[in-house]
Amino acid sequence: MTPVILTRSRWILLAGAAATAVLTGVLREPRFGAGVAAAGAWAYASLRTLEGLLGAAVVPEGRPRRGRAVVLWATVKIGVYAVAIWALIVQPLPVASLLVGVTWLPLSLVVAGLLPAPRQDSDAITRG
Questions:
Q1: How far is 122 from 113, CA to CA, in rounded Å?
Q2: Pick from 30, 20, 13, 16: which is nearest to 93 by CA?
Q3: Within a 10 A sphere around the Cβ of 26, how many other Cβ atoms?
Q4: What is the pLDDT of residues 83-108, one digit of tens each?
Q5: Which residues touch 32 (CB under 8 Å, ≥6 apart)?
Q6: φ, ψ for residue 68 (rounded to 5)?
Q7: For the chain, how far is it from start to end, CA to CA, in angstroms?
């Protein structure tokens, strides 16, 4: 997974979750749309913390691992999961709306991975 794919994935996730939240909020009910938006924000936070954790833990050979950064990112990642568990137990929003919103996480990764690679120069060959 490259940084370009992760960046694309974040944008696809945000755009898709926001569009779905607005659409479901209008067509179904505002509370459902709020649940989709909240789950989309959670999915974004989950993806971002995973990126940070992997960036701190997986370093090129010969470079020192930043132990404090690994602990910090792992703590934040656990916090992100604690929020999800809390939301499922307390159910402040419809559970189905949370499922719809979080579905954008794997979907965005797949779509970002399938998009053609960015061209580096005029002679670059794109993936087909």
A1: 22
A2: 30
A3: 10
A4: 999 999 999 999 999 999 999 999 99
A5: 24, 25, 93, 94, 96, 97
A6: -65, -40
A7: 17
The residue whose two tokens read 């659409």 is 23
> What secondary structure, in 3-state letters, does the chain show?
CCHHHHHHHHHHHHHHHHHHHHHHHHHCCHHHHHHHHHHHHHHHHHHHHHHHHHHHHCCCCCCCCCHHHHHHHHHHHHHHHHHHHHHHHHCCCCHHHHHHHHCHHHHHHHHHHHCCCCCCCCCCCCCC
Total length of the chain = 128
Q: Measure the CA–CA gap between 77 and 11, rounded to whole angstroms.
A: 20
How much is the pLDDT for 57?
86
Report residue 126's pLDDT band, with 50, 70 and 90 as the boundaries: low
**Residue % of the chain over a pLDDT of 90:** 70
Answer whether residue 128 shows pLDDT above 70.
no
